[in-house]
């Protein structure tokens, strides 16, 4: 069973079914609760950051939502583990530009790695927030905005 | 059910293939597939004659209304007021002056909440809504209650999506000032017993507003028979343009109510010291209104009248029955809202996939459905779902489209279950 579109690729479906790092970090140094009030996507991102080196030692999430939001968050956690927080912030910018169609990973330099799987989102403007919620929550957690964020 | 595009009597009350030719947009393709449009609860498409009537008005007849003693203005004013007359007749109002034009139902309810609220709502008064209202019939009343120190009471719903009338009886008291409920729920399709609701409210001394956004396109209406004090509607949900809608109100109430938006056209006289207000409906229509849209609305009403609202209701009901039995046969699909009296709208939840994933995949097959909370979050909370997928039908839909929808949903379930 397949559809003629780039959105729901096997890796995305797999991360939706079996999300990675899907648990709470009890003693997280950073966390943020992100919601998309338009569709009810609701996730919390947890981080353990080694402050001195600025390294993300641990990252996880919990929550519920559509396949795109869940897979995006899951893939984000696998991408971030062991990365420097400055890289994390830069990747968020690149990811956001890619899903808005402002960065073409096939033509331009980037450090998105496997995250280019979400390139197809640019054809579906109504779904960009599903993919970006995780990254907004990440930045919110890094900024220690404990009040949480909303895509709206 | 091969003959299900006609109603059971065997008479083709609605010749759907002929009707479809009236709507230019229905012949297009989406992502290479024929468009199957099932988001009529959000907005409906326009028959060519509505589009043509507005084009003719804009290119040959357009002028401002209610001022200027020259031909174009006088002609426009006459057409505009004719539009009001058509709405009044369509809703069964006594006088056309009881119809106030607004941009749609949202603004209509805000108008009543502000103006009626300012005049009649005081501390410790009570306002009753239901658990299955659109946010447009929830938020204005919440804000009004906060501002005036009044209390908001909510009629609960049963598992089928019907208002629990015994609980409504208990909520009514001599403190109730207004009951505001929809005629048809946009999230579940429930048709509410608005006449009974109105009679009970009046017996308690309360006024009644009925949100008719989802009912006006689908059934014959008689606001005087219902007896309600206000009845709202949106043009773009009844085959007319967006940006126009309005509210019927009893004249004796309009006369007592202060203006909401102020400025030109709503005044009797303005001096630098004091302003006196025009009589209704002008009092509530400050500024230059959407004129072409009113002409388009009038044309849409004529079109609906020619087809016949009873025919539309009967045909759409046959679509609802057909769609409901199809959906009941799909494993892993739950219909949310199974009221005994329902409009042609099926809200459903697919266990295998989130509604947003469902609608994206339906769109791959050319099918437009809504996935979300339908601006009715309290309803979603009541039924324990984050959102639903909604197929809302119109008399230009046909059973073959519902077959295609059912097949597409099955395909989507298989896709997410692999």
Give, in spatial order, the strands making up the sheet with the most strands of chain A. Answer: 3-2-1-4
Distance between the termini of chain B: 32 Å
Structural domain count of chain A:
1
User: Biggest sheet of chain B: strands, sense, closure?
Assistant: 7 strands, mixed
Read across the widest sheet of chain B, the strand sequence of neighbours is 4-10-9-8-7-5-6
Rounded average pLDDT of chain A: 91
Description:
Chain A is α+β, with helices and mostly antiparallel strands. Chain A has a single domain, classed as Sufe protein. Chain: A (Alpha-Beta Complex). Chain A has four helices and four strands; from the N terminus they run αβββαααβ. Chain A has a four-stranded mixed beta sheet with strand order 3-2-1-4, with helices on one face. In chain A, strand 1 and strand 2 form a beta hairpin. In chain A, helix 1 packs across helix 2, helix 2 crosses helix 4 and helix 3 runs antiparallel to helix 4. The longest helix of chain A is centred in the middle third of the chain and has 15 residues. Chain A is globular and about 45 Å long. By secondary structure, chain B is of the alpha/beta class. Chain B folds into two domains: 142 residues, Aspartate Aminotransferase, domain 1 (Alpha-Beta Complex), CATH 3.90.1150.10; 255 residues, Type I PLP-dependent aspartate aminotransferase-like (Major domain) (Aspartate Aminotransferase, domain 2, 3-Layer(aba) Sandwich), CATH 3.40.640.10. Chain B is 40% helix and 16% strand. In chain B, the strands form five sheets. Chain B has a seven-stranded mixed beta sheet, sandwiched between helices. The longest helix of chain B has 21 residues. The N terminus of chain B is likely disordered. Chains A and B meet through loops of A and helix 12 and helix 14 of B.
